[in-house]
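Note to self: keep these together.
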Amino acid sequence: MFFDEYKSILYSDTLLPDIFISEYMPSMDGDQVKIYIYCQFLCKYGKKSTAEEMSKKLDIPLDKVKDSLAHLENLGLILRKTNGITIVDLKEKEILKRFRPKTTSTPEEAVESSERNIARNKIISAINKTFFQGLMPPSWYTDIDAWFDKYQFDEDVMYALFSHCYEHNGLSKNYIIKVADSWYSKNIKNSFDLDKYFIEYQKLKDIRLKVLKKLKMTRLLTEYEESFLEKWITEYGYGFDVIELALRKTTATQNPSFNYINAILSNWFESGLKTKEEVIAFEKANKAKSTKSSKKEQTIPQHTNFEQRKYDEENLEKYYEYI
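Structure:
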């Protein structure tokens, strides 16, 4: 029996679907991959094993084995039942995911849908070749199709989305969705909207660097500080020339904050000031008014501001005579 089993193992293979390698493995650590392959091996031969036995066999801590099994279940790679573990057929899973029931439509809708699908397929194919070297995981096809419907992006914008994410933080689905949500919130739909956004984005980026340099800040801005900066530029319409005037006023404070700068700029905006020249004139007028008010206060008689009565020696002698 032992020889037969050894011979069987020697001449057999444990197959892994390519979809596991392309779709699931990149997000798993080494121990999780080892445990998944070992589960595939055990299921192939109908063997029984406990978490404790896996821990000893694979030289992985017991807690790690349990956590990994839970992670594999969350990924949809295995199903844990009371009497054992079932390996999910990933090929069947993807086929079912991609299957969509056929619905009736008018000839016009059919033509429109066909034309739209042709344009989408071209872009998806371009995304596959450019960013995945022609090996894009199958689930990405359905995800991209869903993103087209959700965000209503033109094909050029969808391609630009992948290009932007690829250059900045890699092709993580969570990151792509985060960027797509941001673009959608800014009403980006076509290439014209996107060009306008990138112009504003570059302006924001340049001003951010100048502000950090002026304030001698070496850290990244917080989310709240970023929102202040975006408000000054997009909502107030201020360039760095105006923002710099507000930064100069922080020299009088020991710990200048974005709240303090925001208060200054908000006051200027609410006063209807738009340009650097208007701000300078406004500040000069306020300074002159303040100086005039200060001088006026100095002319008011104070309780010590009166002429002292003068006494001669004769008056003093008379005063002491009565004491």
